[in-house]
Automatic annotation (TrEMBL):
GO biological process assignments: translation
Gene Ontology CC terms: chloroplast; ribonucleoprotein complex; ribosome
Organism: Curcuma flaviflora
Annotated localization: Plastid, Chloroplast
Listed SUPFAM superfamilies: Ribosomal proteins S24e, L23 and L15e
Pfam families for the chain: Ribosomal_L23
Gene name of the encoded protein: rpl23
Protein name: Large ribosomal subunit protein uL23c
Amino acid sequence: MDGIKYAVFTEKSIRLLGNNQYTSNVESGSTRTEIKHWVELFFGVKVIAMNSHRLPGKGRRRGPIMGHTMHYRRMIITLESGYSIPPLIEKRT
């Protein structure tokens, strides 16, 4: 389960919960098949579809030096009806 960082709770992700779709941030190097396998194995659910997009890192300034945070990937996981995932509340860094 190292690939899944934490669940995302935004207005859109809460709206998608009604469609049995769950949103979470994952490691940027993870593939769709790895994430699907981890979700099905760990939570015991059946995944129908997975959508992903890569979000850019944010700019950070420390004095005169401009840096940035790392980019990350967000997955929207659609489950079969009748299955559900308990929310991932703990945020791991």
